Fold TonB-dependent receptor.
Amino acid sequence: MPKSFARSSLIALAAGLVAMAPGQALAQDAAPPADGAAAQPQGGIQEIVVTAQKRAQNVQTVPIAISAFTASSLKERAVTSVSSLSALAPNVNLDGGTPFSGSSAVLSATIRGIGSDDFAFNIDPGVGIYLDGVYLARTVGANQDLPDVERVEVLKGPQGTLFGRNTIGGAISIVTHEPGKEFKGSIDATTGSYNLVKVRGTVDVPLANSLYSSVTFAVTNREGFLKRIPYPDARAANSDTYLNFNQADYATSSREGGDNTASLRGKLKWDNGGAITATLTGDWTRQDSSSQASKLLAALNLPGPFAGTDNLPGTALSASGNTGFLFSGLYNFCISSTAQQIAARNAQALCGARGTQYGRRLAPLASVNVDGDPTNDRLPWDSRFVTADPDTSYATGPSFNKLTTWGLGATVQAQVSDDLTIKSITAYRDTRWRAGLDGDGSPLSFLELSFQQNQWQFSQEVQILGKALDKKLNYVLGGYYFKEQGSLHDYVTFDEGLVQVDGPNRFKTENYAFFGQVDYRPIDLIGVTLGGRYTHEAKQFEGGQQELNGFNYKLFGCSDANGNVTPDGPFPLAPVSCQTGIGYPNPANPVQVYVPGVNRKSFNNFSPKVGVQLYPAERVMVYGSWSKGYKTGGWTTRLTNPQGNVAPGFGPEKATTWEVGVKSTLLDLKLQLNLAAFTTDYEGVQLNIQIGTSPTIANAGRARIKGVEAEMVLAPVSGLTINGSVGYIDAHYTEIDPAALVNASPIAGIQAGIFVGAPLPKTANWKINLSPRYQFNLANGGNVVALADWTHTTPVWNDIARTLLLRRPTNDMINASLTYNTPGDRWSLTVGGTNLTDTRYLVSGNTNLSAGAIFGSYNRPREWYLRAGFKF
């Protein structure tokens, strides 16, 4: 959308709003309720108090595009996790789970075209998640359950000034329940589809005149919606079981997509009415369930090594070489070829025993289907394993998601004077996670992935909040320190062990920042915002990625550091060592492909913000802003081949955004209408460049993002409220490095590829939401609340290479519920349903051409629920 069009449209809109809302301009910073809860004006729309600028403000006075949700609205709309917010916020995509993570506890967050769809330690999120002001550094565990939430704020656009690095796309701030000064509580129990049992409760317990506490618990148990079924062929039993390969765990399940979660949160607040208040928090969550539902979408046998007819004479390599090494083709060749045919292709070692002296050894694949012994015949790899039902799979491999995360925090606030407050937020968090999935959806071990990640983080933030010049100037100054350390161990089995990735990695990050923002309103009509944040970050990484089958030794016939030679390779290098001929970097570990030693990077960044606000009428604000943000760099870790003597690294992403908007409350508080138009220059986009079989990250692209969004709340008559939103975005690449273009070029019938002008992934052009709510007041003092949610989303590409099978089509999602509340609001009973039209689409997926598999995870099917609640 041209800037001139956005400017003229918003000017015209502002003029119209001025005409509709007579009266002089008034200050908009209304004092929030003492407990921070939302206020309910008589006969109008509920006001929501947010802390997007580190101080309590009516959301309508904050010059940022924010989608804010209160506890009651989240509960009524069946929002139980962060990813459930996706349908309600324009230009926002939140998915529970990322490709091959195997866990819906991992959050894939994209706001206005910028985000991250990965969980690995080396890839930082592009949208920051904050829990009671504490940054959650990893996407693992970021898809928070919301049993005791007070509100959720979704801030769009770079938030680098007040929130920091890795908020280049935006930030999501979760604020949990504060202890009350009176004894009270609530509990609810829910049952529903797939044997759902969910129980949640919160209780406030005053301990003394100035000491208050609250405890929240939640327990959820639900069967998976994807069922594993046996493959009807006796040869399935001859495949190598996943137990023969290294895994993070060996748990499995007959169903996928289940949930078994327990969580506990406690808060202790000291407040004697004086200058100092303090809140101590502790939380604990444990998940022990099956993996995220995953199924095979396609089995590939593309032209290439061992899969076509263009092989170089006497070798295993493709003459065209345009599709990389295809292990699915090698597997099919080995099991179905005679010894003479294998020798003619110099593939004796490739089809021989799998493994090396540095790992497990498994029997050869050579000629098992043509040796005259039917008892050892193996199933070939082809489309026979693809089922038409999105909720069935022939998988037999790992299926587990085991997460334990806990945290401690302390928030201390000192009211030095009426115009000066000092606030300290101290937090420690710890995450232990193991997950595994069977991506090939078959009884073969063709694409099995599991991971183990341990992480801890410590953060300390100090904020100085003040007012000056007769309260016309508000300022925030602060400092921030962050330290993180952990490990991630990858285990990936390709094509019955022809490649066996075993990748231990260790990470360490230390970060400090100084920030400040000044909001000055010299006269009622005009306000000005100036802010900035300086960040210094130091990172360390030690990679140990290794390939336990020694495939390159067998392919090239070279020797290891001890002189052990694998003969018969298609390109024999012996007696040249693989360290010399191929570049294996660690003589002490001949199968290690990653450069040994500790790698170090440091980053320095300054993220500024400039804004102007106009207040042409009461409860009307027109604003414009310019801001920057960045996402930190790192290293590629998922290597299967050596890449020289330097660890492949990448730099940060950066975004510069211009935004203009209008926030208005009109018609005697019966209409709230907010609009924003924005344009973003997104540079240094971190893209995967395929080098051999290794997906290597590089700053290989640049993009331009333009869009508009509108959010509305209408309360035309008593009892009826209509929420609505519309988001439009055009996000496309403006530059792509040649290496990325070559490796993500279109493949007929499989991938559309990326090119200049191609859209960014996880970003719909249009998203429209309409949510009417009607409350029927009954003669006995009770009421009935009817609620519906309709969300229309245009197509979304789920991956950068734009795999056709993974494309999310245009879809319409409908949820609805009916709630009866007894007089006094003591009891409630709700019956509802989600995805009522049973619309199915893929929320994530991955294409591995070398392994010969495309797999993905579908959204949940139609489900019903029945919830009973009690307040005391």
Notes: The first helix runs from residue 3 to 20. The longest strand covers residues 499-523. Residues 1-43, 312-316, 567-571 have pLDDT under 50 and may be disordered.
